[in-house]
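re: ur question from earlier - yeah i can do the single chain one, its not a big deal. heres the input i used so u can compare w yours
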Amino acid sequence: MRRTRILTAVLALAAGLLSGAPTALAADPPSVRLAADTYTWKNARIDGGGFVPGIVFNRSEKNLAYARTDIGGAYRWQESSKTWTPLLDSVGWDDWGHTGVVSIASDSVDPNRVYAAVGTYTNSWDPKNGAVMRSSNRGASWQKANLPFKLGGNMPGRGMGERLAVDPNRNSVLYLGAPSGKGLWRSTDSGVTWSQVTNFPNVGNYAQDPSDTSGYASDNQGIVWVTFDESTGTSGNATKTIYVGVADKDNAVYRSTDAGATWQRLAGQPTGHLAHKGVLDAKNGHLYLAYSDKGGPYDGGKGQLWRYATGTGTWTNISPVAEADTFYGFSGLTVDRQKPGTVMATAYSAWWPDTQIFRSTDSGANWTKAWDYTSYPNRENRYTMDVSSSPWLSWGANPQPPEQTPKLGWMTEALEIDPFNSNRMMYGTGATIYGTENLGNWDSGGKFTVKPMVQGLEETAVNDLASPPSGAPLLSALGDIGGFRHTDLTKVPSMMFTQPNFTTTTSLDFAESNPNTVVRVGNLDSGPHISFSTDNGANWFAGADPSGVSGGGTVAAAADGSRFVWSPQGAGVHYATGFGTSWQASGGIPSGAIVESDRVDPKTFYGFKSGKFYVSTDGGATFKESPATGLPGGDSVRFKALPGGKGDVWLAGGASDGAYGLWHSTDGGTSFTKLSNVEQADTIGFGKAAPGASYQTLYTSAKIGGVRGIFRSTDKGTSWTRINDDAHQWGWTGAAITGDPRVYGRVYVATNGRGVIYGDSSDGGTTGPGPGPDPAGACKVTYKVTSQWSGGFQADVQVTNTGTTPWNGWSLAWSFADGQKLTQAWNAEAAQSGSTVTAKNAGWNGNVAAGSSVGFGFTANSSGTNTKPTAFKLGDQSCTVA
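and the output i got, formated as C-alpha cells:
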C-alpha cells in the first residue's frame, strides 16, 4: 500500500524543500569547491517494491514498452537484457513531485517519441503544478510543458487510464484527461503547448471520500482515459472517433466522431460504476470497458465488464461472473492484437485470497480463470509461479488455503499482452511487474509460467539507512516492504526483514562497537512495533511495546548494544536495558523527539525536538536540554554522532523560512557551530576517510554554492564536492544518507520512490583541486554508449587527468565517423562543427586534480552504423582511450 508515500511527501514539504524557483548557479565561496569527480550510480538491487499502475507497449515497434510508477518515475523496457531503464532520474529537488507519473504514452507514428504526464498530488502536499514531459529519444532526455493545474500520480484512481494519448494517425495531436474538475486538454504541436477542450461536457464528479478535509481522498478524479479508434482516420489526418472515460458513475463514457469538434455521451451505456479502462479492438469494432464501483487502487467491491459494438451501438454485458458474485472491481484490461477477439481482464481489488485474471478468446462470450476452486478451500492454477529472481515476494509467509504464497498479485490495474507476441503478457501489482512468455499454454491446457519481469525497476521509499563497519554493507528501512539486509549490493536479498514484517520500517540502528546487535522499529496494524537482531540483521525477534505505541518513530542503540532508547509514535521517549522486554519512560525530553546514540559512550544518547537539543548521560533515563541556540525551529532535522568520536555530533535540517543548514558540535551537543558554506542541508552521513585524511568523509543532500545535490567533504566540511550530476538527481533525497565505513567514496542515498541508490567514486582520494595551468600532459578517456534506439543514442564520457598537475578548465574534442549529430549534452558545454564535437567544462567542474576524473553525457542522432570515436584530444594533447 501507499500510506507511507503520503507521509513521506508531507515530511518533504515540512522540510521546506520547495522554496520557490531553483536558484541559479552562484560563484563558489572561497571555502566551497564544487570540484569534479565522476561517480558511478546504481541501485542496491531489490527489484520492484512498489505499485506499477501502468504498462504501455508501442503499437508499431516490437519490444518497445514503458512502465509508470506512482512515485518513482517512468521506465523503458530493454529487450536485450530483459531489464527496465529509469527515465526520470534527472528530476531535481525542487520538482520532486514530477517523479509521480499519472500517465505515459508512446507514439506509434514516431516510436522515438514518448510522453509522460507527471505530478504526485493534487492537494497541498505537492505545491507545484503538473507537467507533460516530452522526449524525442525514448526518454533519454526530456523537455517539459508546465500545466496550469496539478496531476496526481499517487492519488486515488491512479490505476485508471491511460489519461494521456497520442493520435495514431496525426501524432502531433495529444489528449490529456485532468483531475480536480479541470477537464479534457489537447495539444496540437506534439505536447509543446496545451489548451482545454472547452466544449467537452463533463469534468467528472467522483471522489473517493468527499468529506476528507486533507483534499487527498476528496479530489474529483476527473477524466480518466482517452482511446482513439485508429480505423476512423488516415495517415496525417486527425482520427475522427475518440472515446473518453470520465469519473462519473452515471455518465462514464463520451465520444467524438468529428476529431474532437463535438462530444456526446455514449447512448445506452451502463450506469452505477466507474469505467477504469476503455480498450478498443478496431479490427472487430469492439470497445471493451472494465468497470468498478470504486476508483481504486485499493478499494472496489463490485464490478462488470462490457463490450460496445462501435458499428451498431450495441452494448453487451460480458462479465465473466455475475455482479452479485463479485467482491472486487475490474480494471486491468487488454486485447491480443495478433488474435482479434482475445481479451483479458483482472479483478484488481481481490485482495483475498488472491487476485484473479480472466481470459476470453471469443470477444467475451466465454471466459476462463487463472485459477479456480476444486473443492473449497483447495484451488487449481492454470499457472506456475517462479519468483526465484525476487524470492522476497513470498513475504516469508505460510498461509492456509485458499491463500497461496507467492500471490498472483494485488492492485492489478495494469495488464498488457505484447501487441507483437501473443505469448508475452505483463501485469503490474502493488509490489512488482509479473509476466509470462508462454501465455499460449493457457488455451492449450498446459500451465503458463509467471515470473517477475521487473529487474531495473526500483520503486521503494527509503526512510533510513545504515552501513555497519562489519557484516552486511547495507541495512535499509523501507516503506511498504519493511527493509532488507544486503550482503551483496548487486543481488536481490532472499527476504525482507521478518519477525515481524513491518508494513513500513521507520528507523533502524546498530551498536557501533558490536554491529551484530541491530534494532528496527516500524508500523504494523497489529503486533509489536520493535524488533531486535543479534546476528547483524540476518534473523530477528520481536520486542515488547510500551503502553500506547501506535507507530515506529525513531530508535537508537547504545554504542555497545547494552541498551536502547526509543521514541515511538503514540507514546513518549522510553529506554530499556537488554532487548526491550521492559521499558521505562525517559525524563526531561518531549514526546516525538528524534533520538540517536553516541557512537563511543554507551551511556550517552541525544534527542532533538522543535529547535531544542537534548542529552542523556545515564543511558536514556533522563535528558537535559542543551543550551545550544540557533538550531532549526521545526522538526525536519536529521542528526548523527560520528563513529569513533565521543561527543562529535552533526545536525542537518531546517526550512526555507527559518534556520536551515548544517551544524557541528564537538562537545556532545552543548554548543553547535553552523557551517557558513552550506546554505541548506537535509541529511548527514559518514564514510571511510579519504587516503591521507584523519577525519571521516562527510556526505549530505544539500544546497551548496547555489546548487542542490549530493555532496562529499573529506576535510571536515571546509570544502565540498558535488558528486552527483544533473542526470542523476532522483527528486527528493532528504530522508537519509550514509557513507560506507569500509569503502572510501561509496555513499548510499535514500530516495522517495527510486529505492536505495549507491555511488562509487573514481576519485582515488584527492580532496579537491587547487589552481593550475590549462590542461596539459597525460589524459585518459572512457567513452560508453549507455542506450541506443532507432535513430539515436546516449553516451557517457569520462576524462581522467593522468598527469601530475591539476587542470584549470578543460576542452575535449573528437570526431564522429558515421554522420552522428549531437542533440543535447549535460555537465559540459558541447558543440558540433561538421563531424567534430568539442565539449568544454561547465562552470562548476573545470578544476580537475591530478588523478581525478570528470564526466559528462550527451545524446545524438544516428542512422545505421554508430562507430565509437577512437581518438580524443584535450587541447593539443592526445588521450589514451580505455
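The two ends are 46 Å apart (CA to CA). not sure if urs matches, ping me
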